[in-house]
Amino acid sequence: MPTLTAPGADRATRTATAGLTVVGAPAPAPRSGPPAPAPPSYLAPKRHRRAYGDKGVRADVVALPAAVPGAQRTISAAIQAMLNAHALDWAKTQRENCRVYLLSETGRFQQWCAAEELVTIDQLTTEKVEAFLALMSDREHGPGLKASSITKLRTHLRSLARFQATTPGFGAGLFDIDRIPKPRMPREQFAPALSREEEAHIVASCATTRDRLVIEFFLATGVRVSEMAAVVLPNVFLAARPPRVHIAGSVHDPDCTKNGKPRTVTFRKSYATLARRLQDWIRTDRDPRRLSPYQELFLTSTDGHRRDRVPEPLGFWGYERLCDRVSLRAGIHFSPHILRHTWATRLVDAGVKPIHLMEAGGWSSIDMVRRYYSANDQEVLSAIASAPA
What we know:
Blueprint: H1 9-17, H2 75-85, H3 92-103, H4 108-115, H5 126-137, H6 147-166, H7 196-204, H8 209-221, H9 225-228, E1 236-237, E2 244-247, E3 263-266, H10 274-284, H11 316-330, H12 336-349, H13 354-361, H14 367-372, H15 377-386
Antiparallel strand pairs: 1-2, 2-3
Helix pairs in contact: 2-3, 5-6, 8-10, 8-12
């Protein structure tokens, strides 16, 4: 009986042989020879952002063993000694960030040192660091990290170079690290402010009283999300005239704000009733069973199956997730940072002097007022048309 051949079968076979996948074509024969070696781990593709606080390493001051006379210190020991030396003048987040980039065993720097067989601090030179940073930024042969990530690596290694220059016994191979140029950074983009209609719609889309008070508090005071997580009841003066909130620190440092200066903020006139509603909520619904010993203004919700759970402070990512939930309900994407931009824009449009807004926003430079202001065409036209000039 003659063999029947489907039309185009020869062409399908030739196409499959050329390395293309065709339905119904025979599978290509496996290649002979040893498998291709896996790329080094420090060249792995970029990973998704980890959860806030998930660093994989501890941020404590680590006791180092006594130095053996004549023995060379390791790279890790030198980095840890630098972190110990900056336990007082570096912020906690700065130390954690440096530890993650330079000391994490799963990080690219430590994996690169292991692949290059760099153990002692004297083996780490500017030439090797320059090659490492160039490889990390290479999009064709390397992971192609963003310029911001390369800049952080360069900054932490420059700190190590300064530590070497001021502390004997930790090498001097990075003395000329400043000759490595700073990566070219893209122009900074700033989050746009919400329109007045979007602002009102977001407030109306909150599902619970607590969520609405949180959103209104952001819009009324312009505090940073890190500062919001550190606001405690003794620093909230709702019975004062005008009502005010004392910002003394942040979730990163309870005793120090981002610019190092405490400040007092009040509520926008658009949220004049917020102080009274906050007082009523604190008295009745903040912790209805009086179980929580925490003094933070906003606590986690006790609704749901675990009603006996002790309410805890609503942390950094708690506020982020709360804004995500309201974003889905409103159909408008926003974040706590966008609410801060909205606060600054509304006050500028209302005629608040930039120097006053700089103090209320906790900025060190008046230029930040301009960076946080989102110009609206209609507002600009109305301001010019009504000007007495």
